[in-house]
Amino acid sequence: MLLTSEDIASLSVATRNLSKGYDKGPLAVDSLDLSIRPGEVFGLLGPNGAGKTTTIRMLLGLLRPTCGQVFVHGEEITTGRQRVKSRLGVCPQETVLWPELTVSEHLYLIGRMYDVPGKTLRAETERLIGEFSLGEKRNQPTKRLSGGLRRRLNLAMALVHGPDVIMLDEPSAGLDPQSRALLWERVKQLTKDGRRTVVLTTHSMEEADRLSDRVGILDHGKMLVLDTPDVLKRSIGEGDVLEMELDRAPSSEAMEALRRHGRVEQQAATATTVSVRGLDIMQRFPGIVVALTSSGVVIRGTRLRPNTLEDVFLKMTGRSLRD
Ligand SMILES: Nc1ncnc2c1ncn2[C@@H]1O[C@H](COP(=O)(O)OP(=O)(O)OP(=O)(O)O)[C@@H](O)[C@H]1O
Ligand SMILES: [Mg+2]
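That is the input. Now the predicted structure with magnesium ion docked in place:
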């Protein structure tokens, strides 16, 4: 889809044919066309090496694209970077802190770098320290913080100058479940008034699903699919998935019998985990059991679950996101 200049001006982040190749290898990011709107949480989901960080770095103007363009609030990022810089906030994948400076000094330092007026900065620092539960550690040098606390501080640092386009590269890496829940809550709040935009990367399908208004699944630098989590999950079929752990791989006859009850998935012909997907799958459960046990297969365990983005990735690539 070709974007007009009016489209680009109304989007918080837009890219055209954005690509990056390092050295002589294949493209790390291959022809991305993104149109991210104000108020949106946009999730880039992909396995290690998919090109997520490379994309984020180009969106921030930190890495020069091999070809293509990036626009933030309608300004091309390579040329207009100075003007839009203060509107961008970033939490990089690798936590970067000064070991001798304290928690609050970090927030002040970033605020000053962005020329945040003193009174606003003091208020914002207090608010963020409270929000990210860093109060007890506010006067500690960061070399004494645990990994999760360092991550929380890094997230607070991304927000201290009041940016309206916030890029979070694997924000929940290293966070415990409680801190992760806090982060998710915070990200949702950030975009609530429709003014700010969050672009986040993750290889957690749960995180992408829970947080993103739209998700782009990236693999080997290419955008495989891009839509709302619900549409993506529905695209692989209606109904729930019945996963079964078996004592052996079912025979081809047993697989044939299973197929009468729904869409059957088995990663390899020798795999002992088989799933059947379909509407009212539990109504079909007795028939599924008979199909397997009549051929001598023992069912060791079963699990019923809804479709996930993991299934979408599996369908698109033939690989599991978790592998
Ligand atoms: N500075 C670099 N020089 C050469 N190749 C690089 C460089 N940075 C990244 N790459 C390669 O580009 C590809 C994409 O890397 P990138 O860091 O963007 O992936 P990612 O999706 O962020 O992965 P992860 O989930 O591991 O953070 C990988 O094949 C990686 O090895
Ligand atoms: Mg990365």
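The chain has twelve helices and 15 strands.
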